[in-house]
Amino acid sequence: MKKLINKIKEGKLAEGNLILILIALIIILAIFSPKFLTANNIRNLVRQTSIIGVVAIGMTFVIISGGIDLSVGSILGVASIVSSMLMAGGMNIGLALLITLVISTILGVVNGIIVFDGKVPPFIATLGMMTAARGIVMLVSDARMIAGLPKSFTNFAQKTIIGLPSLFFVWLLVIIVAYIITTQTVIGRNLFAFGSNPEAARLSGINIRMLTYFIYGASGFTCAIAGILMTSRLSNGIPTAGSGYELDAIAAAVVGGASLSGGAGTIVGTVLGALLIAIIRNGGNLLGINPFILQISVGVLIVASVMIDQRRKASSK
Amino acid sequence: MKKLINKIKEGKLAEGNLILILIALIIILAIFSPKFLTANNIRNLVRQTSIIGVVAIGMTFVIISGGIDLSVGSILGVASIVSSMLMAGGMNIGLALLITLVISTILGVVNGIIVFDGKVPPFIATLGMMTAARGIVMLVSDARMIAGLPKSFTNFAQKTIIGLPSLFFVWLLVIIVAYIITTQTVIGRNLFAFGSNPEAARLSGINIRMLTYFIYGASGFTCAIAGILMTSRLSNGIPTAGSGYELDAIAAAVVGGASLSGGAGTIVGTVLGALLIAIIRNGGNLLGINPFILQISVGVLIVASVMIDQRRKASSK
Amino acid sequence: MSSSALLELNQIVKSFPGVKALKGVGFSVTSGEVHGLVGENGAGKSTIIKILMGVHQKDSGSIKLEGKEVIIENVIQAGRLGLAAVYQDLNLAMDLSIGENFFIGSLPRKKNGFVNWKYIYEETEKTLNDLNIKVDPKKKISELSAAMQEMVAIAKTVHRNAKLIIFDEPTALLTNEEVEILFNIIATLKKRGVSIIYISHRLEEIFRVCDRVTIFKDGEFVDSLDVKETSEDDLINKMVGRNITEMYNIGHQKCGDEVLSVKNLSRIGHFKNISFNVHSGEIFGFFGLVGSGRTEIVRTIFGADKLSGGKMELKGRKYIPKSPIEAIKNGIGLLPENRKEQGLALALSVKHNINLSSYRDINKFSFVDKKEENKRADTYIDKMAIKTPSSRQLVINLSGGNQQKVVIGKWLCNDSSIFIFDEPTVGIDVGAKREIYILMEELAASGKAVILISSYLPEVMGIADKIAVIYEGNMMAIVDKKDFSEELILKHASGIK
Amino acid sequence: AGGQQEASGPAGEKPYQIAVIIKATDSDFWQYLLVGAKNYEFEHPDLVKITTYGPPSEADIAQQVAILEDVISTNPDGIVMASTSSDATVPALEMAYDKGIAIITVDNKVNTDKVHTFLATDNLVGGAMAAEKMVEFMKAGGIALKGKVGIISAMAGVQVLTDRDDGFKKKLNELAPGIEVLDARYIDNDIVKALSATEDLITTYGDDLIGIFADNNHSADGAARAIGEQKIQDKVILTGYDSDPEEVSAIKSGVLKAIMVQDPYGMGYKGVDSAVTIIEGGKLPAFVNTGVVSVTKKNVNDADVQGVLDPFSMKKY
Ligand SMILES: Nc1ncnc2c1ncn2[C@@H]1O[C@H](COP(=O)(O)OP(=O)(O)OP(=O)(O)O)[C@@H](O)[C@H]1O
Ligand SMILES: Nc1ncnc2c1ncn2[C@@H]1O[C@H](COP(=O)(O)OP(=O)(O)OP(=O)(O)O)[C@@H](O)[C@H]1O
Ligand SMILES: [Mg+2]
Ligand SMILES: [Mg+2]
């Protein structure tokens, strides 16, 4: 712990500034709203952050690789509709979820194929997927919510384990796995190398085709998890589920220090980024701020946090 | 003309492939829908494309510089509300529009200041502006339309000049000015230098601070024009005007050959990109395609066009 | 110091996190003098240049220009003071034309305020012609070969009409022809009274063009000498702290079995009908002028580019690599010529870069074996004498030569049987160069095959067993060691059979 | 559910803290509801204190759930909520109900009994009324009940809109089986897109097109403009939904034949009033119908519809 504090002080921990900003924000909110630091609100907060948090983890992989994934919201929608239609149709829950995971991952891999083999810039490839996948969702669901899901499934998101929401543990699991992948595995090393200099990575014998498939597939996979969680939480398959999440997920990663030009980014940073955005919104709601003023504040605070982060980084150099 | 055709054939014209793809698309649509090539539909088409087309021009500046501007839709909304509130309040039209242009340009410059002086990545800076500016619009307009605009103003968008909609001529003017700036002026060339190698640009003594302000200011300015056009066309100030336009504008520029990593992009390419997307949508509507299938097709076709473009570029090398 | 000193540097100190790059150095340059600056990789040569040009700020010390103390805060100011530099890392805008790069930052305008394209291209063409550089000024930089880019950067700087021009390793990527052009340029400048600081690791160049030379070692000033009063050995001794007697003494016994055989290899638009055989224990050299296609040939062998015709065999087995992965699996390693664009992930650590192509070997169930990762990093930092505060330092913070050593380390680390080195000693100091030659010999001696591409003729002639000479994508000859002569090879290289 | 330890429940002191949660902040309709609620506050300053909340878009259901949870954390005395999803908010609302908070749902039914009262209009009925009005006007205008009718829908996948469209289609089929209802065109709640979609419908079907139903104010605004510009209001009967200034002026000019107007103001005002009743121990029926009014040129100037058409005219605060 002391070591951590020292690291933060010396500006050595990449996420140090963000932690300080978060702490400052938490203190301010705790002063102004006595409800903020209650167990109940903390539960709400992590529950609210978990779903977008999961999406942001997959997004972090893509961003580290130097890409971008605009299709996350739509793939989340696919997962929501596919899983709910299968379950409402009476399929075994486990099987339904497995199929959902597979389909969403495939959609992600298709992004990867378009990017790598089609040489289409990721922005356009995933924009196309975003549009097309949402169209598919609307088509198969007839643009209607899917109801009639098994109770055992919809109950999941309500559960708490040792006082914390079940959703949080799913997020935590995703965080841990992603953390291990990025820091401990060959794929993680290759991911950073690829994001930093794709040509050097290729000439070093890294299988950048497979890597690209993996990256976008991983993003599709996390979208599936998020979509399933959301379906459980909302007790319905929602065709519009996830609209606009791409920006939130990218914002979480970039606030957390990932660079859209690739090669930089950490899982912990993204988690902090997602929390920062969620805390600003949650705090605003608790304070009963006018929704428009809240909206303005969210915009200003996100920019301000990143600005402070940059300042401190520059000055610690 | 012959020269042009030869240039296209030899793959020398950057936009050559896109022109071929557009022509192919037009031929196909003309075959399947007799209405497609009617004067009336062409009028509709250019009118439908003009507003987003203007936004895409400003976006092209930003993208060439290696940045991105997510706030275009919200600034367009600002322009719509500011201009309509001023005019509905009885202000002289010219003055009201001038003030609108100034305010929107200032918002753009603020983006530039956040990016340059705050060292905030453009994605985050303009995402913050997008959120905050929309909040401001909602706040000042009470989230309501502003009616009661002078007839002389609202009539403008209805007019046609030599058979073409007035909006088109505004777009054309913006295109010409932007074309001249990017190809003939020092600032335009500095833009490319900056996007291509910011460090080299800085070391060569280009005033990159002013350049950044100019770039984002220009985007704010084109948003103002688009917002004013939209207000005239809809006879009302619309607080939600422009939501989601950022993706359309970026897509137009990138389909037109601009690179999100900066340094590449042309005004003509962006115009063609905007037309391509608009033609796909318009054609789909004319063919009476199921809207969801149309949505899927739009996604697929955008990706396919870029893919074909890339192939041809690669093979002509 | 002499009173006619144009530039006087005194007690300059500069630290980076973890590195004291300059520990109080100084020297002076008189008007019309060509002043050499030499020292090992990481000695601080580029750093002092960047301080002079306002890219970095000095921690302490003084800079006097024409006797007046100046504080140089940025590049623009340096330009106004009459300073110009050709950096080691090229600073051109790749998407722009040569002409635009010439005038970048100060584009000429017509009366109506628009860019005067005609003037730009005419003026650029004139300058290029004057300097004997043959290239269309409307071409984009990204379409040029590395050597031509370097020439453009030189021409651009000369065009600025500065009082003092700094060349930081200008010849690293050039072949004889361009080097001659450059020397002519320098002679002309000198006649005009322009002062020049000339940094190079090719010491014979120092003796050819410089009047005086300053030696740095580990961020410290060693000596400033009149070149007439010193010798190459003396310089080396002062730089490295020991004598290097024989630069190129080949000790290994060549010729084992044939490992790579290439027949009629072609790639449309780049080279055609290239045939040669490489044996284990052999150092096989390639020589040719800029753009002759050597790089393309080895890239094709490495699977980085597609071939359009011909056959290859590896140890008798048919070999058609579809990607570098396959080449590497087959035991081929390629050190690319452009370290920044093809060799390094600049934003990552030295450790990560050294291990970049070896992770497939050093993992357990695809978890990185961190012990081994560290061990390999340390081994090659040691072996290559890479000057870095730690293996966690980002490569972007290393000096140019040390970056090059990292790339070499990467390929040594990934144990191959055929090593292809494309311009391996670019930017490497004499001491380290010798180490690299020894290393190649060791590789050859241990039965590996080495393919060496170099634009530096003494180097290829010094250590290769055979030299294939390429001219415009055609194989002119394969010359055996016994027949090596500068004249013959240069003749072939310029297209004469 | 957890949170019992600090769930002290609402204070129950005057003024009562009442939270009003709307579906989205981006439309006039929901702002009207807030006017009703705030007028109530203005009239009874010592009795209630209103705080308003809402996500920026109706598509973002999860965000609304998060807001609800945050609001419950603040322990208000009552909640008036327009829940976008019928199921997603169930657990939170039940928890709030159990805590003793007065729960009033409006506009959309939530699938739980733990709600004190529900105030709404039936959107199916509203859609059907739009069909009836359309047929009426066709008959009056001498248009044969044969041909095609288009639907311009604000957004895909939003339940209330789907209900309106379904109600419309079903009724029109009953009344005029000779008419073919075309696939809905979705416009992302963007007036300009509504305008384009309508233009394309007119181009495609020409004289076959005899009617258009637009299912909210923005879609009606765009459709009215397209029809008005081409002066075909007597050939293409347009009926719409909701009200805003542009719709009202279109009604007056005869381009838009009828609009189905709900009473959002009433929902807000009565919603708060109901909350007060519950807090003070009163009883209320499980469902209160707030009704739909059809407004045409004939009754558009009537005094009693003014309040429904433009609740802002009744703004007191
Ligand atoms: N931006 C930086 N951050 C940290 N260390 C740096 C930075 N720039 C240079 N250094 C360090 O300063 C020292 C001097 O570097 P410099 O580039 O001046 O060497 P050099 O003499 O030019 O070497 P070479 O011959 O390899 O180009 C090196 O140890 C290098 O690692
Ligand atoms: N000046 C140039 N302008 C345009 N293209 C060039 C130029 N020089 C080289 N090229 C391209 O590169 C190809 C061969 O260059 P390559 O780099 O393979 O040769 P090289 O012998 O390794 O030369 P270098 O010493 O520059 O690396 C040429 O066929 C050509 O396509
Ligand atoms: Mg150097
Ligand atoms: Mg080469």
List the helices and strands and how they pair.
The complex is a heterotetramer, with two copies of chain A (317 residues), one copy of chain C (497 residues) and one copy of chain D (317 residues).
Chain A: H1 2-9, H2 16-32, H3 39-64, H4 72-88, H5 93-116, H6 122-141, H7 151-154, E1 160-161, E2 164-165, H8 166-184, H9 186-196, H10 198-203, H11 208-234, H12 245-255, H13 267-286, H14 291-315
Antiparallel strand pairs in A: 1-2
Helix pairs in contact in A: 2-13, 3-8, 3-11, 3-12, 3-13, 4-5, 4-6, 4-11, 5-6, 5-11, 8-9, 12-13, 13-14
Chain C: E1 5-16, E2 19-25, E3 28-30, E4 34-39, H1 45-52, E5 60-65, E6 68-70, H2 75-80, E7 83-86, H3 98-102, H4 117-130, H5 146-158, E8 164-168, H6 176-191, E9 195-199, H7 203-209, E10 212-217, E11 220-226, H8 232-240, E12 258-267, E13 271-279, E14 283-288, H9 294-301, E15 309-314, E16 317-318, H10 324-329, E17 332-335, H11 339-343, H12 350-354, E18 363-364, E19 367-368, H13 370-383, H14 400-413, E20 418-422, H15 430-445, E21 449-453, H16 457-463, E22 466-471, E23 474-480, H17 486-493
Parallel strand pairs in C: 4-9, 4-10, 7-8, 8-9, 14-21, 14-22, 17-20, 20-21
Antiparallel strand pairs in C: 1-2, 1-3, 1-5, 5-6, 10-11, 12-13, 12-15, 15-16, 18-19, 22-23
Chain D: E1 16-21, H1 28-43, E2 48-53, H2 61-73, E3 78-81, H3 90-99, E4 102-106, E5 117-120, H4 123-140, E6 147-153, H5 159-175, E7 179-181, E8 185-186, H6 191-205, E9 209-214, H7 217-230, E10 237-241, H8 245-253, E11 258-262, H9 264-279, E12 287-289, E13 292-296, H10 303-309
Parallel strand pairs in D: 1-2, 1-3, 3-4, 4-5, 5-12, 6-7, 6-8, 6-9, 9-10, 10-11
Antiparallel strand pairs in D: 11-13
Helix pairs in contact in D: 1-9, 4-5, 6-7
The structure holds adenosine-5'-triphosphate (ATP) (2 copies) and magnesium ion (2 copies).
One adenosine-5'-triphosphate binds next to helix 5 and helix 9 of chain C.
